[in-house]
Amino acid sequence: MTAKKKVLKLDDSFTEPEEIVLLITSTNKDYRMAYFLNKYLKFDFCRRSNLQYSTKLKEQDTAEYPVFSCEAKEADLSWMLVSNKHSYGNLIKKTGNIDYLLIARGATEEVNVADMLAKIRKIPNVIFVNETNLQAHANIFEVLEKLELLIILEEKRRKDQSQSYKDYN
Length: 169
Description:
The protein is α+β, with helices and mostly antiparallel strands.
């Protein structure tokens, strides 16, 4: 009796989510930047928990970076606006004067980056905006993973609170 050989084929339709990261320099506060992106790009950003990220400094173990997010359900795309600045250092290393990261994750082939850049440049107090090459930043993939985990955990917490409220009533 001989063993049967099984052949497994990879499904080509499944791919890892892709990201687009725009770097923004602006004098706007984080909540104002979210407001203007909502207004100019028709987003629906809402405030999330701060991202806690290790600074590896002796006086401060972690720094907190404000996060805003929204979902584009029809396009299977999620957006995050993350502050890059903290007194203990930038979230993304070696980004100089970059104040914010605007991150698209998911079906990014639908995003017209040139159009978005043009609209963001019209926002008051925006000094610079450009797309970045993800490979150029050493810790960006780690930050993207932490952001995704933050959003997942916060959504789970909200569902649990909603369920416990329903159970209470």
